[in-house]
Each structure stands twice: as structure tokens, then as C-alpha cells.
């Protein structure tokens, strides 16, 4: 009888220990965000029109508007964290941010380390160059000096599609564009909307679209193993597609509706 009582006491103590706060299961990311009432979103500030800093020093762009929409729908405060292409994945992996909304394309390599929402924005990658340079296909990029942002989709695409090109890699998008404008490279690889913004700012720039690299829509990046957060983001994006909010953002920043975005 004493042995049975002792056994019951040990079971009760074990259950109490499991239920104690110190032994609680890890909280999922969505629950943590809602409890904290703050969402930390990594965004670009050097990549207009997706993300840049205005004359008032306030971040602005498609990605910033998308981050604002997500925070509003979750009813939490938005904390923007400036990132560059090389460190935007690392910020997720080290939990310095809850999401990455940074003109992020989907690749097999990235899918090994992060998860994605459905697409929220269109994005075409291309190579742009001086008007007097002839390059109509990947083969004709051979020997051409092209600047690109390290770790970006354009970096991966250019390396794969034009292995004969002389690729100069820079740590952020400002460096990539500045190298071309300063004459350090003959061409540069970027998104078509970004190139349009450069041309709009200074129409005198000698620059033509030479070769399309890909159509690579933008996705929200999420740390692996957070299905609740991914599902909530997809719900927000689908609603924004249905009610026209996505098309409105696209017209505002890209000059055209988003069109049919992949799921």
C-alpha cells in the first residue's frame, strides 16, 4: 500500500514538473508575436522601389507597405529592421527578425533553410547596360563586366546563365548600381522596377535592358518549422489579392497591377 502511494506521488510530481513554466513546450512564432504585440520585419532600404529611405529618413516602398499591412492585420506594432541582400536570411536564422519582406525570390538553396509565404509581388530580373554595348542573349554576355549584389537572385541567375561573364560582386545594391554609374562595370544585374526607378531619377543615364534573366516573384521569408505563421501570412496575402490591396501597392510602386501571382 505504501509502495502504491509512493508511486502515485512520483507520477503526480512528474506531471507537475512537465506542466511547470520551465518545462513548457516552445512557443510558436505566431503566438510569440501576438503575445509580444510587436512584429520585427527585415526590409531593404537600398533597393527602390521595394525599399528605400526618403528625404524625411523614413523607409518607404512596396516591401515596407507589405510589412505595414501584415502588422495591421495581426493588430501588432511594426518594427522595421534594415537589411541587405547578403544578411536578410541570416537575420531570420538568428531570430533577429520574425519575417523577411525584402524582394526575396525562391530558390532550392534557400528552401533548405527557410520557408516561404505565397508570392506577394511581381519581380523581373534582367541585365542592363550602356546603350552602345551589344548583348542580346546570355552568350553575348561573355567577357562583359557586370556588377551584381552578392547573394541576390541576380547573382545566382547570372552565374548559372552567363558563366562567361566577368562578374563583380558588391555587398549591397547601392554598391552594385554605383559601380555601373561610375563606369567601373559595363553592365549591372537588377530588377526591372529598380532600373526604371534609376532612369526616372536621372533620364540622362545611358542604360538599356539587354537580357531578361527570369521572372522571380517576391515571397515573405519565414524561419523553418513555423506552419502557423506561414498559414496566417498566406491568409493575409490572399485577402489582399482578393480585395485589390496587392494590385494597389503594385500600381503605386511598380506602375502596373501585380497580375496573377503564384501560390
Brief summary:
By secondary structure, the chain is an alpha/beta fold.
Helix and strand topology:
Layout: H1 2-19, H2 29-36, E1 38-44, E2 46-47, E3 51-53, E4 59-60, H3 62-74, E5 77-83, H4 88-93, E6 99-104, H5 108-111, E7 114-121, E8 124-129, E9 145-149, H6 153-161, E10 166-170, H7 173-181, E11 187-191, H8 192-201, E12 208-215, E13 218-223, H9 227-242, H10 245-254
Helix-strand category: alpha/beta
> Outline, from the CA principal axes?
globular
Largest sheet: 5 strands, mixed
Order of helices and strands: HHEEEEHEHEHEEEHEHEHEEHH
Distance between the termini: 63 Å
Please mark out the parts with pLDDT under 50 across 5 or more consecutive residues, or reply none: 17-24
**Strand tally:** 13
Tally of contiguous helical segments: 10
Q: Looking across the biggest beta sheet, what order are the strands in? A: 5-1-6-13-7
Report the β-strand fraction as a percent range: 25-35%
Whole-number radius of gyration? 23 Å
